[in-house]
Design a protein that fits this description.
The protein is mainly α. Helices cover about 75% and strands about 0% of the residues. The chain has 14 helices and two strands. It has a two-stranded antiparallel ribbon. A hairpin with a 2-residue loop joins strand 1 and strand 2. Helix 2 packs parallel to helix 12 and helix 10 packs across helix 13.
Length: about 350
Amino acid sequence: MTLTRRGRPRPVDSVGWVDSVDSVDSVDSVATAARRVARSPLVRRLGGVAVLGVLVWRLGVDQSLRAVGAIDARAVGAALVLTALTTVCCAWRWSLVATAIGARVPLGAAVAACYRSQFLNTATPGGVLGDVHRGVRHGRRTGSAGRGLRSVVLERAAGQVVQATMALVVLSVLPSPVRPAPAWLGAAVVVGLLLCLGVAWVRARRPAGPARRIRPWAVWVADVRRGLLARRTWPLVAAASALAVSGHVLTFLVAARTAGSTASATQLVPLAFVVLVAMVVPTNLAGWGPREGVAAWGFGAAGLGAETGLSTAVVYGVLVLVASLPGAVVLVVAHGRARRLAVGARRAEEVARA
C-alpha cells in the first residue's frame, strides 16, 4: 500500500495510521524522530559507560555495595508507594493532554501504559524507549500515529518544564553547590520560552487560505494550545507534574537515608533536584551514568562525601528498578493477550475458509 505525495509514491510507515487532520509529513517526521531517539548512536551510550568507569576507578564500589545491601523492606515499600503516586500523576497528566488534543486515553489504561513505559525506560538503554512504545501503541489504538506520539511528547515536555521551574525555585532558595547559577539560568529559560511562545502565537494568528497545506509546526502549535495552554487544562497538568516531581524527590531522600546519609532535608532536596535534572541528559545507559556522576559531584561539593553521593544514586537506581517491576507484569499480560487474540483470529480465519 502506498501514499502519494507531490506525485511520488511513498510507502506507508510501519505504524500504518494516518488521519484526515494530520498531514503525511507530520506523521513521518514524528515517527522518524521517535526511531532516531530509540536508535541513538553508540557514542551516547559510551558516555554513560565512561562516567561509570571513572567513578568506579576513583571512588570504588565497596560503599555502594554496602548501601545496596542495606536496602530493606521499608525502603522498598516506600519506593513502591511513591512510584505508584508518581505513576498515577503522570498517567493523569497524559490523560488530560491526550483528551484535550482528541486522542482520549482512560485513566486506568494510562496508568498501566505508564507503568509499562517506566519499566522499559529503566530496563533499556537510552531511557526513552518506553515513551516511544507508549506513543506508538496509543497512536494505533486511536487511529492516528502522529496524535498518539504528540500526546506523549507534550505531556513529557510539560513535566520537564514544571520540574525545571521547581528546580530553579528550590536551588535559588536553599543552599547548594549550584546556587549562584539558577538566577541567570532562570532568566535565560524564561526569555527563551517567551520568544518561542511569541513566535508560535504570531504564526498561529496568520490567516490560513483555502489551499494552504497544513504544516507540521502548525499541527504542533495547535496541539500545544489545546493540550497544554488551555485554561481548563494547564492548572491540572501543572499540579499533576508537581506531584510527580515531589514523588521523585522523596524517593531520592529515601535512597539517601538508606545509603547512610545523615544530612538534613534542606541539604538533600537541592541535590535531589540537581540529580533529577541530570537524569534528563540522554547520554545514559538505562538511566545509569550522568545520575551517578552528578550525585557524586554534588555530594562532594556540598561536603557530604562523593562516595555517599554515588551510593545514594546507586540505591536510587535500584529502588526505581524494583518499583517499576509492575510494568513488567503489564508487559507480559499484554503480550499474552495479544498472542491469544492472534491465535483466535487465525482460528476464525481457518473456520471461515473451511
